[in-house]
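Researcher: Let's do a round of design. I'm pasting the structure tokens now; please hold your answer until I've finished.
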């Protein structure tokens, strides 16, 4: 059976996004530093970041994401909205989007098809596992979606990219998960971020 993984960038005070997320600021106000390192992996000294990111996604067979990860809207779908990423999203695999509003599947360039799931996280994971055919399934975010899978005991591995900034407000990943215990597996350091890999016991 496919293992279920997630990886998120996080501030020192536990936020994976800043406040006031919008179409102009998908990660919220003041949160640019959380993702800046991902676009600097060609710089000297960032080899560990580049290798880790490549390894995280090399074997992924399917993805699950929340509606907020796919777009800023709520309520009925805007049919013109096809995601943040342009005509060729970076997933190159089936993506199952959690939502309360039906929408027909959306095929994109590069092998990504977004399928919109209205009957919960269990159904989305089951469909993703079937599509992945034994390869890992990634819970792509955002934090609320990953938190639901953690709370339900459905996540096997979590990688946190800890960026040395303090946001002070926004959305935290681990709120409400008191008592959760994870097993440290690996620590990878680079000049601007520390990567922490955990196994989540069931």
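Researcher: That's everything. Go ahead.
Model: Designed sequence:
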């Amino acid at each position: 059976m496919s293992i279920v993984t997630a990886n998120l960038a996080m501030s020192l005070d536990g936020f994976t996004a800043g406040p006031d997320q919008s179409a102009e600021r998908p990660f919220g106000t003041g949160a640019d530093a959380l993702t800046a390192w991902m676009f600097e992996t060609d710089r000297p000294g960032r080899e560990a970041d580049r290798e880790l990111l490549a390894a995280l996604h090399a074997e992924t067979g399917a993805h699950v994401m929340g509606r907020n990860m796919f777009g800023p809207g709520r309520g009925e779908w805007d049919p013109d909205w096809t995601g943040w990423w342009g005509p060729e999203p970076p997933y190159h695999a089936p993506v199952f989007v959690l939502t309360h509003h039906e929408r027909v599947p959306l095929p994109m360039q590069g092998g990504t098809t977004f399928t919109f799931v209205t009957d919960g996280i269990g159904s989305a994971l089951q469909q993703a596992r079937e599509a992945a055919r034994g390869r890992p399934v990634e819970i792509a975010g955002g934090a609320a979606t990953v938190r639901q899978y953690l709370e339900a005991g459905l996540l096997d591995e979590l990688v946190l990219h800890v960026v040395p900034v303090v946001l002070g407000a926004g959305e935290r990943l681990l709120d409400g998960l008191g008592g959760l215990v994870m097993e440290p597996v690996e620590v990878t350091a680079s000049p601007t971020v520390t990567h922490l890999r955990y196994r989540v016991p069931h």
